[in-house]
Amino acid sequence: MGTPDFPCTVPRCTRVGDKGFTRRDHLIEHLRNFHNLDIPKRRPGERSANPLGLPHFQHSESQ
Fold this sequence. Notes:
By secondary structure, the chain is an all-alpha fold. It contains 1 helix and no strands.
């Protein structure tokens, strides 16, 4: 398993650092299910590297 590159940015969430996510899709599911955020799923055929449009959800290497 790789190093977690996708930490949760919700204040006071413990899923940061070594407890972060190695996959962006797992972070998105965590935000939807654990924090009950309304993040729309992409439509069939739609492809986006950052559908939320928020810079803090980008991969850490690109920052």
